[in-house]
Amino acid sequence: MEVKYFDIHAHLNFKDFDADREEVIARCREEGVLVNNVGTDLVTSREVVELADAHEHLYATVGAHPTDWKKGFDEKEFHTLAANSKVIAIGECGLDYYRIKDESEKAEQKKLFVQHIALACSVGKPVMLHIRDSASKPGLAYADVFEILTREPGVRAHAHFFAGSWDIAERYLARGITLSFTGVITFARGYDEVIRKTPQNMLLTETDAPFVAPEPYRGKRSEPCYVREVLATLAELREEDPEELAAALLHNALRVLALPAGKFAIDK
């Protein structure tokens, strides 16, 4: 397989792909897209591991979404899943204050996040961060996540679907936290400054499929192959050669997720 892209955050196990999952997975292989599918609870984490075990070009991230804190965290079961060689990160974990109804929920989310960090440290894998602010307090979730991470300097982290300001991005980048962006950047301009200023070696690509399909697929189901549109927009905003940027960001993903570059034929 000749690899061109790495969609580091997708959900091919979701019901949105039930009708044509294998066809979508085959397209990823044909177009040279490695895919990291991300669990949101114990059930979906098992699903993404099964997909990864069945397909050479698929990987998995296991964990519980911050808003699923009521389900608890089965440390033993998650540890068993995390030990799989196709599992490359722990998450998606972090803090989501977007629809929070009570301040006590923040404490529960923080507790869940700390449990993910402990798991990540024990298996030597990075955490896949999910961070979403409330409209009334922009930046608070990012600040709280950062504060928790400062207590665990040894854990590696990646911020998926980054939506913070440049001031926030600077702090995260200084901590060694890489950033990725979705198809939203093809039709929304609020991300442009961060994209232009982020060092090339700290950028990754993702789709968050089936969500937020990029132009020209906006309003439809997203899929990992659309990562090429995300890459094209990144190259345009940064005024860089698309092919050279694609190669650089692919190597970034392999580095961040500790995957051997020699496993696949890398398109140059």
TrEMBL record:
Signal peptide bounds: none
UniProt cross-references to PROSITE patterns, sorted A to Z: TATD_3
Entry keyword Hydrolase: yes
Species this chain originates from: Candidatus Vogelbacteria bacterium RIFOXYD1_FULL_51_18
Residues reported in the UniProt entry to bind a divalent metal cation 2: 130, 160
Binding positions (a divalent metal cation 1): 9, 11, 92, 208
GO cellular component terms given for this protein: cytosol
Alphabetized UniProt keyword annotations: Hydrolase, Metal-binding
GO molecular function terms listed in the Swiss-Prot or TrEMBL record: DNA nuclease activity; hydrolase activity, acting on ester bonds; metal ion binding
Name the record gives this protein: Hydrolase TatD
